[in-house]
Amino acid sequence: MTRQLRVAVVGAGPAGIYASDILTKAELPEPFDSVSIDIIDRDPTPFGLIRYGVAPDHPRIKEIIKALHRVMGHEDINFLGNIEYGADLKLEDLQQFYDAVVFATGARRDRALTIPGIDLEGSFGGADFVAWYDGHPDVSREWDFAPHAESVAVLGVGNVGLDVARVLAKTADELLVTEIPDNVHAGLSRNVTKDVHVFARRGPAQVKFTPMELRELSHSPTIDVIVHPEGFELDEGSMDAIRASKSQKLVVDVLQNYLAKEPTGAPHRIHIHFCQNPVEVLGEDGKVVGLRTEVTELDGTGNARGTGEHIDWPVQAVYRAIGYYSDTLSGLPFDQVHGVVPNDGGRVLEVDGSPLPGAYVTGWIKRGPVGLIGHTKSDAAETIRLLMEDVDQLVAPSEPTHQAFLDHLDSLGVEYTTWAGWEQLNEHERSLGEAHDLERERVKVVAREDMVSISRSR
Q: What fold does the segment set 3-108+326-414 form as a domain?
């Protein structure tokens, strides 16, 4: 007797969607004649950090949503949003309805930075700022732009650090053509920042941002990009990195062009400083008044060592963008050091090292918050390959139907959203954009209750 292979994918970002796509194309052994996938997310909407982690002035990156949208429309895939794993459901609940569970919950929190003064008023996490300007429903509608914070420090030289720097340096009206909600435009209008200082612990060949992100810094007519020559070092390790990566060579070339360029006198400036390691956030009366860095030098391998020389920078706010960190997942072990669920290629491992039957991970919760979309696809392929190797050993669920799971959610009183509901919300947001004077592509709805209401309206 044949039946469906039932799989729950927890997380509707790229990692979960790619895993689902690969699973729909997998060759199924007997007794399975088809696959049924429920993608479950705590947000009322799909797409994860593509919707809530990408700066609003990145329309090209958001083109990825079109490809993900096509996958989500597959007849074997169902989206179920506004469901919080660990609160509404736990692993043992899911095991009643699914043969396997793939966790693709990603990483949304800021990685901690343990230096003195990091908790002062005016010290922020970059991920928190991104969630605010992207209109995530679970963050405050307000952002505390200090009225005197004309100089700001950004710690970290990945793409998120550059996004934070660029949004801080742009005028609010420049972003009004994007999908930002009204509260974000109003908040950015109160921002008085004129100088954004981005600090890198090592040299130009070790930065983690992409050439496209770096070039986009200069696209605003209100911003000068100033690369400071101090610390602009290329040791043998740096040259090896440049020779090994075309992308890294392009980054260094763009930085050198900025280095040679004269400022235009634009009202806002983004300064990039190399070989400066933040060691303390300076405070007065509980508020940020500066940043202390230690000057570093490259050691020949591309790594940096301290010189003992310190510089104090007069800034009135600090944004750390040194990486994301994942949340723990109920019923699963967690590696607190690396911020991942312990796994072997995607198979979740118990504390004793044995596989946890029917539980898998993919994306950042599997390997940490590094890499681009291509890495996410290869991650998903590896995880699904292992799931298919294990398929004849999986424990069959007691209620193996999509409808049984919906009935369970209804019994719990969970106001879940669906793919059809997302399409309604999508059209609503687009209509808000069309009604705007600038004919924006969309204006995001921010409040969770509003998104749920629109999605569940008939």
A: Rossmann fold (3.40.50)
Scanning 313-457, the segments in alpha helix (DSSP H) are 364-367, 373-390, 402-412, 419-434, 448-456
Token look-up 């198979």 returns 347
Enumerate the domain spans of the chain.
3-108+326-414, 110-323
pLDDT digits (tens, 9 = 90+) for 47-61: 999 999 989 998 777
The structural architecture, per CATH, of the domain 110-323 is 3-Layer(bba) Sandwich (3.50)
The three-state (H, E, C) secondary structure of 213-242, written as one string: HHHHHHHCCCEEEEECCCCCCCCHHHHHHH
Q: Find all residues with CB under 8 Å of 435, minimum gap 6, and list them.
A: none
389 secondary structure, DSSP code: H
Q: What is the DSSP string of 346-370?
A: TEEE-TTS-EEEEEEE-THHHH-S-
> Which tokens go with 34?
């088809």
Residue 9 CA to residue 39 CA, distance in Å, equals 5
303: alpha, beta or left? (left if phi > 0; alpha if psi -120 to 50): beta
Q: Is the pLDDT of residue 285 over 90?
A: yes
Q: What is the pLDDT of residue 27?
A: 93
Residue owning tokens 């069309």: 434
- The string of pLDDT tens digits covering residues 291-311 is 999 999 999 999 999 999 999
